[in-house]
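Competence protein ComEA
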Amino acid sequence: MDRVKLKEWIRNNKLTIIVVILFVVSLLIYYSSIFKNSSIENSKMDVLEKEVEKSEEPTEETAKTIIVHISGEVIKPGIIELDYGQRLYEAIEMAGGPTEKADVEQVNLAMILEDQQKVVIPSTDNGAQGNPTIEYSAGGGAAVKININTADKTQLMELPRIGDATAEAIIQYREENQGFKKIEDIKNVPRIGDVTFEGFKDKITCY
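Tokens:
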């Protein structure tokens, strides 16, 4: 086909040629959009799968175990290893259960325990109202305090200038007076004056 005939053919079929070109361009645009959407969907699925995998992985907090010290009126006082999120009643069970003298009415058995925590289960012999003594180690984020309404003689003797006789006097006083209403009441115990009280007032609680 020479040039003259080609030009004539193009001129006679101009509309057809335009339609074909538009059709081809439309096909290219259509398949390009499908490929693009498919790539976007695949990317979204990859992100979603990664998020699901991440959510299923145990976090540092939920995966760890905690160490607590439980003492007082339990059959086997001592150090106990628990899973994060376990509660006080589970720790008491692992410590052999409460003794016959355990005053569980004063204890929040549903309390979630924390690492480095110490819990002292009170005795019915104390004759005082209040919660169990809850302590933390120096690095546990809370000051160590002894509950003078529930602590036993050994725990009371951990206070500065408190010996065997004074610890017994503290226990006797709280039994005779239905417990300490405020920490300053401990100065009513024989052998405990202002100087002794100032030495341990930041280490005790009566609530």
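The helical segments are 3-12, 14-56, 60-63, 88-94, 153-156, 164-176, 194-200.
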